[in-house]
Amino acid sequence: MSEPIYRADVLVCAGTSCESSGARSVLAALTEELAKTGLDQEVRIIETGCRGFCSMGPVMIIYPEGVFYCQVKADDVPEIVEETLLKGRIVQRLVFTETESQMTVPYYEDIPFYQKQQRVTLHNCGVIDPTNIDEYIARGGYEALGKALGEMSPQQVIDEVKTSGLRGRGGAGFLTGLKWEFTAKAAGNPKYVVCNADEGDPGAFMDRSLIEGDPHTLLEGMAICGYAVGASDGYVYCRAEYPLAIKHLKIAIEQAEAYGLLGDNVFGTDFSFHVHIKEGAGAFVCGEETALLASIEGRRGEPRPRPPFPAVSGLWAKPTNLNNVKSYANVPQIILRGAEWFSKIGAERSPGTAIFALTGKVLHTGLIEVPMGITLREIIYDIGGGVEGGKKFKAVQTGGPLGGCLPEEQLDLKVDFDSLRQAGAVMGSGGMIVVDEDTCMVEFSKYFLTFATAESCGKCVPCRMGGRRMLELLTKITEGKGTLEDIDEIDSIAAGMAAGSLCSLGQLTPGPILSTLRYFRDEFVAHVTEGRCPAKQCTALVQYYVNPETCKGCGICARNCPVNVIEGGRRQIHIINQDGCIKCGTCLEVCPFDSILKVSGETVEVPTELIPIGTWAK
Amino acid sequence: MPKVKSLDELRKLRDQVKDDISTRIETGTTIIVGMGTCGIAAGARETMHAIMQELESRQINAHVRTVGCIGMCSREPLVDIEQAGKPRVTYGNVYPDMVPRLIEEHLKNGHVVDEWVVGRKTTDDIGL
Ligand SMILES: Cc1cc2nc3c(=O)[nH]c(=O)nc-3n(C[C@H](O)[C@H](O)[C@H](O)COP(=O)(O)O)c2cc1C
After folding, report:
1. pLDDT tops 60 at residue A34
2. Is A142 on the interface with B (CB under 8 A)?
3. Which of A88, A127, A146 sits opposite B65 (nearest CB)?
4. Ligand 1: does its nearest atom lie under 6 Å from the Cβ of A196?
5. Of A4, A51, A357, A537, which has the fewest CB atoms closer than 10 Å, so is most exposed?
6. Phi then psi for A546, rounded to 5 degrees?
7. pLDDT digits (tens, 9 = 90+) for A427-460
């Protein structure tokens, strides 16, 4: 047969998340099975980027029907080929099942996880083959660049981006068009365009997924920026831990240059734009713009005071426009569909969409894109499917290690740059972690502080010392040694760090603690005044006891105790020796009669000597 | 690879490569071939290949789907043509040599080929 004519496309997500859950072996099995059945001349396999539904990965979508299969294994492939690809029938057991209603949802467009999402920035992600520029072009790719170069002046491009209201997706939400204008107007030559793809927040993978799944969108956005500000070189600063993103970016640059859509004389004009990739070594502070620029130059990744801002003096002291991946990725559509179109999406002062990496104790974790202005409740319950295991919601942390925690009362908060900041959290770069009632908020804020402190570059004192001092105080509190003065002390150090640190790392490090103090102060107070951890998580503040009323004297706890501090013979009420107990919780896990009590801040009356079961009276 | 020198050239290129992703975008027309064991035995795969060839050579954008047995085994190969806003028409005993006329009449000229029809449906209640 000559060129095969395809009637069906099987899209297999090969993003990093699905790859780690086995997408490679599914792809291999699929290739083999299609060849075996002769369907390879009519059914095509496309490896795409992330579809976002990572907890259900590896995922597969079969077009033209739009059948959605999740948690596909290599063993499932023969059945998929025989049933769906050959005979057009759905393999029910691979279809997504809604937890609550137990309803099966065979088609992609009907899956509740996607219902409240709006894919703008990620509109190609998971739909096209990121290593094939033709698919990007088929979806209208590079038309915005062609339009900008052919029909618009640089100032018109800047005006369009300004009017759209697009705000930087790197966290602070600065107006992108305005930033471009500063760079365009700054004196100095050459000028540079830099993309921040460092994405150092633990648990965040929005930028990675975008580059893996749709690298050309970023390149096109950067090229448009280059034209607008008058730069002919662009740098993507991407962490080396993102090998697939870097690989796809390299392929994309090569293909775009081959078509003359990047490189010398783009679209045959005298505008040239070369994109270079700079791999970062993975220091969180290198995501800060001045540290990032220093790192590209080959210097130590340390921030410097601003002003001057990069727009005036950036890379090699030349005017430099620096934006986040998503900021650039929004631009092609703004140019193509107009500022007005964009400004109508989302919230008034935060137009467009927000992309979050939804993680923690929600049922459906993954990558989501939602219109700005959606409430936290909709994100967590309608998209995320609610809290896992029927537990009670406690808090949601947004903005990564420099962000903040919001409590249940704030669930109806509309998510945008300004409302989040007012509530004490930040948009940040888009991590969203949900925690349930079993999380101790003091411990939780300590986790972020530990991260931020470890990542402090050490250049300025408030950040270097302030973080450390706060960590000591928090540790003291979790160990039950804290005082009310310590809580005040935290407040005052936080104020000092916010005012005196060189860059936002130090300025925002207190964020998670301050917001937790604002909404969960009583948990801190319980730790210091009552020696009680309300979530029963702080080891120093919990005790385990054998319940003398229900103990059956089976001895299982004693046999499993790793430090042998449980006493008792057959049919005797067992006793845990509190002095030697390391609070590992093993007894609680192994007791077949639910007779281990875990308490914090209360004492349980238990026998002081070994007595037979059933004889205990207080 | 020839360089793209203008927006017009890019759009031409886009039109050329659009077929690459045509199964993933709406086309308004779906041709459904019965591919149960009975259909396959009656030659449904050959019919389907003929349909795909015909669509390709006439540059018609349509989705081709397969569907399991729908119970009219004696009339296999069964081919349904569904176009947005029109009743879905089922043709029976469609063999490869009939395909050119079927596509010509139904899709190009918009006439149903009455003598081959075995059923019509106004609502879209047959799923995949
Ligand atoms: C410690 C620290 C880490 C940062 N990490 C990132 C990052 O990973 N990605 C990012 O885009 N911005 C990061 N930023 C923000 C950048 O400094 C900068 O504001 C942003 O990249 C500007 O892009 P935008 O205008 O498109 O939002 C970080 C800032 C700080 C202080």
Report:
1. yes
2. yes
3. A88
4. yes
5. A4
6. -85, 130
7. 887 789 999 999 999 999 999 999 999 999 999 9
What pLDDT, on the 0 to 100 scale, is given for residue B128?
Answer: 38
- Reported as a single tens digit per residue, the pLDDT across A456-484 is 999 999 999 999 999 999 999 999 999 99
Write the CA distances from A399 to A247, A286, A421, A496, integer angstroms: 28, 17, 10, 21
Q: Taking the domains of chain B in order of start, what are their residue ranges?
A: 7-121
A551 contacts: CB under 8 Å, gap ≥ 6: A568, A573, A574, A593, A595, A613
Neighbours of A197 (CB within 10 A): 28
Q: Which residue has the tokens 């808090």?
A: A395
**Between A5, A146, A268, which is nearest B56 by CB?**
A5
Q: Is B24 in contact with A88 (Cβ distance < 8 A)?
A: no
The pLDDT of A241-256, averaged and rounded, is 97
Q: Is the beta carbon of A327 within 6 A of some atom in ligand 1?
A: yes
Best A9, A12, A127, A137 member to test B by mutation, with max B CBs in 10 Å, is A137
* Residue minimizing CA distance to atom 12 of ligand 1: A170
- Give the tokens for residue A331: 């631009």
Residue nearest to atom 4 of ligand 1 (CA): A287
What six digits make up the tokens of A368?
A: 């989501």
Q: What local confidence, expressed as pLDDT, does residue B126 receive?
A: 43
Which of A7, A10, A83 should one mutate to test binding to chain B, selecting the residue with the greatest count of B CBs within 10 A? A7
Pick the CATH number of B7-121 from 3.20.20.150, 3.40.30.10, 1.20.1250.20, 3.40.50.1240: 3.40.30.10
Q: How far is the centre of ligand 1, averaged over its atoms, from the C-alpha of A283 (Å)?
A: 13
Model ipTM? Answer: 0.87
Q: pLDDT: is B108 or A76 the higher one?
A: A76
Residue A171 CA to ligand 1 centre (angstroms): 6
List, in order, residues 6 or more apart from A492 with CB less than 8 Å away.
none
Sketch out chain A's domains with CATH numbers. Answer: 8-115 (3.40.30.10), 133-343 (3.40.50.11540), 353-436 (3.10.20.600), 441-530 (1.20.1440.230), 542-599 (3.30.70.20)
